[in-house]
Design goal:
The protein is an all-alpha fold. The protein is built from 12 helices and 2 strands; from the N terminus they run H-H-H-H-H-H-H-H-H-H-H-E-E-H. The longest helix has 30 residues, at 63-92. The termini are far apart.
Length: 311
Amino acid sequence: HDVFSSTTPSQLLVWKPVHGHKVDSRPPSVDPSLLLEIDGDIGYPPPRHHSHRLGNSQEPASQAEQQKLFSVLAVKCIVQLELIQSIDNIVFYPATSKREDAETLARAQNNNVHKSPGELSGKGDRGMYTSLSLHHLYTLLDCLLQAHRFAKNFNSNGEQRNLLWKSGFIGNAKPNLLKQETQSLSCCLRIMFRLYFDKTRADCWKEIEERLLPLCSEVISYFLTLSSEAHSDAWTNVLLLLFTQLEKLDETRLRSFSGPIYPLLCQLWCVDVRPEVCSVLRNLFLKIGTVYGISVVSNGVGGGERGAQEL
């Protein structure tokens, strides 16, 4: 947590140009070497830690100092993104999450409902998950969730992003936190569902469910507000992960989850979603239908009239 705190560019949400300095209509570029790994994404400031926030008396006194500050923030951006990716690598082993995302996407593209959503190829569990205590995992979850929520707030603040862009931060496009927003959330969901399915950690199931239920509603609700196609597309892997994990729930658990999120799931049909997301969403609806006895699924295909007759 301290490492996250010491590398957070807190000023990004509150920074304003120095009075008397004109904001350029065409921003200068930042050192390209600082941007190779972040594609314009910037970092997250967790609450309660503001050691790097500048007070009014510490505002940059010149354009040179402003650019120096921007360079420092750009470095912090890189470190923040690396921290999020490092958590995923440590808990689940490097490249494991990317492989799972690729396999889930491939199944969705092929509409392969015959293969279990939890079935993965490749090597078994080689990460540090089994060696980490609940306290450590909860600490990581808190950091990841804070990162995700800050990223959402920043990405929603078009005025501040535009101000930073016109002042020369992150080159020729508005700065964004898309990678932090999605990667931190994906890692968080992986950890929470892993705990929720782990029979050796049954003592934490109730607490995880209390955290996971509102998070699922938060995830879907936020996605429904997205108006940018690029932003929505960036959420593809998050939605695929969430829906495939929900489909794996047993009937009792799925009843608990489907009640609160069902209206939101229905609303997804009213917005543009990628075909892959439609595929896994269809499978989830079919699973919910069997749980409530309103449909029959045979080999991943709805029973249709047969199901209705059997009811």
